[in-house]
Amino acid sequence: METFKQVVEGVGLAIDGVGVLVIVIGLIAAVGRYAFSKGDAAASYRQLRQDLGRGILLGLEFLVAADIIRTVAVDPTLENVSVLGLIVLIRTFLSMALQVELEGRWPWQDSDKKGAQSAGDPSS
Fold first, then answer.
1. How many of the other CB atoms lie within 10 Å of CB of 112?
2. Number of neighbouring beta carbons within 10 Å of residue 80
3. Is 124 part of a structural domain of the chain?
């Protein structure tokens, strides 16, 4: 049983590493794209923010998955599950805030409804 816990802990740490790596690669790619962009500075800056946000969102998904694996499989005490719940809540809030920042709408809103509401369409 101890070997299983060690393997699961190792898997969790590996997924944590992937999450951090995804964020770092996203940062490097976003900055590189921004550095070599030509044209409107405001549009380039918006693209930089979107690229950074996407990298962070993807990295956060990996980090949450690693936390869930380690907590549930390694040591599922009430305290650890409570801490996991708090971590997932905070990371979910961050993900939603980033998505609103990137797309200008809540995750549960259809992209078509946003356009219809802004156009004053009473049917939406």
1. 9
2. 15
3. no
Full-model pTM: 0.72
19 in any annotated domain = yes
What domain range is 99 assigned to?
2-116
96 CB-contact burial (10 Å; exposed 0-12 / middle 13-18 / buried 19+) = middle
> Each residue of 8-48: pLDDT tens digit?
889 989 999 999 999 999 999 999 999 998 888 888 888 89
In-domain check, residue 92 = yes
Q: Looking at the domain assignment, is residue 123 inside a domain?
A: no
Number of folded domains that form the chain: 1
Query: In this structure, what token pair is assigned to residue 95?
Result: 């993900």
Nearest to 48 by CA among 57, 59, 37, 39: 37
* Alpha-carbon gap, residue 91 to 107, rounded angstroms: 15
Distance CA(49)–CA(69), nearest Å, equals 30
